[in-house]
Fold this sequence. Notes:
Elements: E1 2-7, H1 13-19, H2 27-33, E2 37-40, H3 50-60, E3 68-72, E4 75-76, E5 87-88, E6 91-92, H4 93-101, E7 106-110, H5 112-116, E8 129-130, E9 134-135, E10 138-139, E11 156-158, H6 165-176, H7 192-195, H8 206-210, H9 225-228, E12 277-278, E13 281-282, H10 291-303, H11 307-313
Parallel strand pairs: 1-2, 1-3, 3-7, 7-11
Antiparallel strand pairs: 4-8, 5-6, 9-10, 12-13
Amino acid sequence: MKLLWLQAAGCGGCTQSxxxxxxxxxxxxxxxxxxxxxxxxxxxxxxxxxxxIELLQAAADARLPIDLLxxxxxxxxxxxxxxxxxxxxxxxxxxxxxxxxxxxxxVLAIGTCSAYGGIVSGxxxxxxxxxxxxxxxxxxGLLGADFRAxxxxxxxxxxxxxxxPGWIVxxxxxxxxxxxxxxxxxxxxxxxxxxxxxxxxGCPRNEFYEFxxxxxxxxxxxxxMENMGCKGTxxxxxxxxxxxxxxxxxxxxxxxxxxxxxxxxxxxxxxFMETPKIAGIPTGLPVDMPKAxxxxxxxxxxxxxxxxxxxxxRSDHPLIAPGMRKNGKK
Length: 330
């Protein structure tokens, strides 16, 4: 399968993330072993200049069949819908994307910017940035809500800011094996294999969460949900089950989950590292739990918090080690 990768408006972080994939022989070799050939990539291809333009034009004219069109970064429609804020070879990039998408077997939005607009669309959005098939949480985007690739699938949104390298690789390999279908995408057109878990699953701070032993500042070991803005109990992703580059995640690095896989995460309506509350109760509660149950269980949990958990939650390193059984009996 031939893959063509374009970078629109963004930081390039999804490409950087992809290059850190865990494949021992390198991610490009891993994809090649799965039958995927990179036709061109702005940062990775040897071809440049006129050679790249000729490749793009051949693909846009359907003379060069493209199986996988990957777009990284938000699509700039400004100024005034002209797309001239971002040009490629004398044409607005959005024109290239629209033409290529019309011929591609599969179209993938790599990262939340390409999927929904992301960080680039925040604030006044003077660049008129949007995603390939969504504008924030509204269907439409650059290609329109009714767009379907040659495969019959809509845009596949491999969302994340940046997206996890494993999500990209697994999605591409599933497509190469003809094993990713419409039913395998969720309501936001993300692959279910990574969005049917919560960031909360596997979180190293779960013991603190269970006892509602909360951090008071960012360096504390405690749960970050109550005070520090963490959305791990609401965010769809397997970040703490599938560690980034095999070693970490935002929460393991001491940072709250900001739910970067969802539309409009970039404008939550409050500072990222603060938890909005009403009458002392967080407004963003676990997705599957009624508010009354949460309040009751939180009060019960706090009353049963072991001293070790409570004291450790307010420190940047463990102060009290877990106890030990002395008689060996279970």
